[in-house]
Design goal:
The chain is α+β, with helices and mostly antiparallel strands. It has twelve helices and 22 strands. Helix 11 crosses helix 12. It is globular and about 65 Å long. The structure holds flavin-adenine dinucleotide. Flavin-adenine dinucleotide binds next to helix 1, strand 3, strand 9, strand 18 and helix 11. Flavin-adenine dinucleotide (FAD) binds next to helix 1, strand 3, strand 9, strand 18 and helix 11.
Length: 454
């Protein structure tokens, strides 16, 4: 764990140039920030989008998290629509995404053999074969290209290489942000601020309440020159022998979900969403370095074993680890409402639901910090307890949160209202108009209790 410093220096105050004045500034261009920026811009706001790295996409591209899931409720009801669908359609057109056709979303061994190695399975269901569902395997560079197209087409003022460092707060209102660049510190003035950093950097800097969450971290990686047909044929023809090899592979990597390798849209390239490493704080530079070193040792250990032992992996080579360490959870907002594990597990419906994922609903209040105006959050750091976040942080629902946040800031600006006074019903209406499902209409399996409605 990170060492606590006992020595401090005072840095001198300086004049900081204002490089943009905008209706809305979005900080973080991951899945949530991208959709927030596009949604706000399409609703008529001038939008500046800040990102610390050279690419768009956050964990989806730089973190190489290459399957979109939590998109369907029971019965294959697709619940993450709107901008999520646009992303998928555009990636498909660029040969950058693969998913099963609806008629193949079934629970039988034939479909299992065809689709499970694409990650299109309902991993919440026990028992084999698990159902094949609508989930999307994609290529990280296709994600980056589509993101850039959407942001440019929407007229968003994009500023990459800009690391958020401080929120500007006056009389309880956030009025802009300061970021660090190669040219020194730069300020952006804004009427509305959307924190989509995933780590709650902006809201915590502005004084919002939060808890410190933590979960496993992962140096995701890809292998190339894998004969996936051969590997699958061996697995299905020799299930017991394969199981033994697989067990040893997973022991070498030291922590993986059910399948440690999945296919990608690039032939011969497999995605490895492992190893699972615990005890690392995703905010600490020392811990993140430690995880990079440990993760790389583990992945090479696995590669050597796979090359020597697993049919289909004889010529496998390391294509590379993700540019960004896979951080699942750090700071979580303690906002106007904190979503609990019970809410998620019981499929609790909220009257002010503005977006949803799988079978859970996100109330508008869970995007709003307490006591600070002009600030809204979207993404994995939303107001949720640590256990509930582990069940509700996948890419598509984070994108839907971003889309809803973009709508909310536009409604607030157009009506000259504080964000907390925006009527969630109006957000729901606009989300529907944009083709997104805000979760206003509970599905048949939702828990709807008048007494608990917002
Ligand atoms: C290893 C791993 C495996 C996962 N597996 C899956 C999966 O199979 N399917 C799935 O759907 N989801 C999966 N997830 C979850 C999912 O990837 C994340 O929850 C999701 O990407 C969150 O989106 P976000 O936009 O909230 O945050 P992020 O994706 O973290 O994006 C945050 C963005 O903000 C930027 N940023 C952060 N701080 C600053 C700053 N100070 N200044 C400027 N910019 C900043 C970052 O660079 C990044 O671009 C996985 C996550 C991990 C880590």
């Amino acid at each position: 764990m990170a060492e606590q410093t006992k020595e401090y220096v005072l840095s001198s105050s300086q004049q900081i140039p204002v490089v943009a004045s905008t209706d809305v500034v979005v900080i973080g261009a991951g899945p949530a920030g991208l959709t927030a920026a596009v949604s706000a811009a399409r609703n008529g706001c001038s939008v500046t989008l800040l990102e610390r790295y050279h690419h768009l996409g956050g964990m989806a591209s730089g973190g190489m998290v290459l399957v979109l899931d939590d998109m369907v409720n029971e019965g294959n009801e697709i619940v993450t629509t709107g901008i999520v669908n646009e992303f998928v359609d555009r990636m498909v057109k660029q040969d950058g995404a693969v998913f099963p056709p609806r008629e193949e979303c079934l629970t039988n061994w034939d479909m299992w053999q065809k689709w499970s190695r694409w990650g299109c399975i309902d991993f919440h269901k026990t028992g084999m074969p698990q159902p094949i569902i609508h989930a999307v395997a994609f290529d990280p560079d296709a994600w980056k290209r589509v993101s850039l197209d959407l942001v440019v087409e929407a007229g968003v003022n994009l500023r990459l290489h800009s690391w958020f460092s401080e929120a500007l707060v006056e009389n309880g209102k956030v009025t802009g942000v300061i970021c660090q660049t190669k040219l020194g510190r730069q300020a952006i003035r804004a009427d509305m601020v959307i924190d989509a950093t995933g780590d709650l950097d902006v809201a915590s800097s502005a004084g919002a309440s939060f808890i410190n969450g933590q979960y496993i971290v992962t140096t995701v990686f890809r292998l190339m020159d894998v004969d996936t047909d051969k590997a699958e044929a061996y697995e299905y023809a020799n299930p017991e022998a394969y199981k033994k090899l697989d067990r040893e592979a997973r022991r070498r990597i030291g922590g993986a979900w059910g399948m440690w390798w999945l296919k990608t849209p690039l032939p011969g390239v497999v995605w490895c969403n492992c190893p699972h490493m615990s005890g690392y704080d995703g905010l600490s530079p020392e811990d993140m370095l430690g995880a990079e070193i440990e993760g790389r040792e583990r992945m090479m250990n696995l590669l050597h074993f796979a090359r020597e032992n697993i049919p289909g992996f004889e010529n496998a080579r390391m294509l590379g680890a993700a540019e960004q360490l896979g951080i699942r959870q750090t700071r979580l907002l303690k906002g106007e409402y904190v979503v609990t594990k019970k809410d998620v597990a019981s499929r609790r419906h909220f009257a002010d639901s503005v977006c949803r994922g799988r079978d859970y609903y996100t109330p508008y209040r869970a995007l709003l910090p307490k006591g600070i105006d002009n600030l809204i959050v979207a993404g994995r750091h939303y107001s949720v307890d640590s256990d509930a976040q582990k069940l509700s942080r996948e890419i598509p629902p984070c994108m839907s949160q971003g889309e809803a946040a973009g709508v909310a800031v536009a409604l607030a600006l157009n009506s000259n209202k504080a964000l907390r006074d925006v009527d969630a019903k109006l957000i729901q209406k606009q989300m529907r108009a944009q083709g997104a499902d805000p979760g206003d209409i509970p599905s048949a399996n939702a828990l709807v209790e008048d007494a608990i409605s917002a």
